[in-house]
Specification:
Layout: H1 3-12, H2 15-53, H3 55-60, E1 64-65, E2 72-73, H4 76-107, H5 110-125, H6 128-147, H7 155-179, H8 183-191, H9 196-207, H10 209-225, H11 228-233, H12 250-257, H13 263-295
Antiparallel strand pairs: 1-2
Helix pairs in contact: 2-13, 4-7, 4-10, 5-7, 6-7, 7-10, 8-9, 10-13, 12-13
Length: about 300
């Protein structure tokens, strides 16, 4: 055994190294334990209501009247609203965020880039309720005035607010991925006669696609999981989704009724949380699998 290998083995077997290895292992397993605990809690709490209401009636029912004399617990409007809201927000945030990241990484001057980065970091740190308040004051009245509506608290207002909230994570992670592209790639492209713009979009962006995809995954998680801001600007009404209609998301359905719910209504809210959890896990699994396939 070489001297270097012997030294590594000796260090690895030292009490400090063994303690740190064990401590880090415990922390790593703790995160797994939290996921298992949350999953078990939601399954145990959410399954009974689905059994009582009926799987089809619960997932594909179009009417939610949880406090009526003859209660209805159909959550299809919430599911579709969450999907449309997420898709609409990403449709706006991905091109804007990616182009902003390209500008910061490849084109902006140092001083201007630092100013924009500070603004992006500030956006990331603003609480959700502040986004919702600004949306209520500015975006909701604008939607009402622009489309001649009695109330601008609609899916469109929620999409606009969500797209702004998703931007910081997409910009920051995409810029980091673009900065990690080796300079040799860009220099080789320029040497072959490509312009700087062609180099950025045909060399740098494809080379950073894994990091950009990870940024989009994080944006998806933020868009699906947001509750407070969208509750303040979406109208929070259990309608089938329409761009100019007041709607309710999966997250806001739980948040708006949990404080006073009881009996089957409370159990149904746990079931909504279970559906939301599974929904997020499936989307994340699909997106991460797609990213890994592209890497291979």
């Amino acid at each position: 055994m070489s001297t270097l290998s012997a030294a590594k083995t000796k260090k690895a077997n030292s009490p400090v190294e063994l303690f740190m290895h064990g401590l880090l292992t415990v922390f790593g397993l703790t995160s797994i334990a939290f996921v298992i605990f949350i999953t078990a809690f939601l399954v145990v709490s959410g399954i009974p209501a689905i059994g009582k209401i009926g799987f089809t009636n619960f997932l594909f029912g179009t009417v939610w009247k949880s406090t009526a004399a003859d209660p209805k617990f159909g959550i299809l409007p919430f599911i579709l609203t969450s999907i449309y809201g997420m898709a609409g927000a990403l449709l706006i945030a991905i091109p804007v965020g990616l182009l902003c990241a390209i500008y910061l990484s490849k084109m902006a001057g140092h001083v201007l880039a630092e100013v924009i980065r500070s603004a992006v970091e500030l956006l990331a740190g603003i609480p959700s309720v502040v986004y919702g308040l600004v949306g209520m004051i500015i975006i909701v009245p604008w939607v009402a005035k622009s489309f001649g509506l009695a109330s601008g608290a609609t899916l469109l207002a929620a999409i606009i607010v969500l797209s702004i909230m998703v931007l910081p994570s997409i910009i920051s992670m995409s810029e980091t991925a673009l900065n990690a592209v080796p300079k040799e790639y860009e220099e080789a492209s320029l040497a072959l006669g490509a312009t700087w713009t062609e180099t950025v979009f045909k060399v740098s962006v494809p080379a950073a696609k894994s990091g950009i995809a990870a940024a989009i995954v994080q944006g998806v998680g933020r868009a699906i999981g947001e509750a407070m801001a969208v509750m303040m600007v979406s109208g929070n009404v259990a309608n089938m989704p329409g761009l100019l209609k007041s709607v309710r998301f999966l997250t806001t359905a739980v948040a708006s009724e949990m404080s006073y719910a009881s009996g089957l209504q409370r159990q149904a809210l746990y079931s909504i949380a279970l559906v939301l959890f599974i929904f997020i896990m499936v989307i994340m699994f699909v997106l991460n699998s797609a990213i890994k396939k592209k890497k291979d």
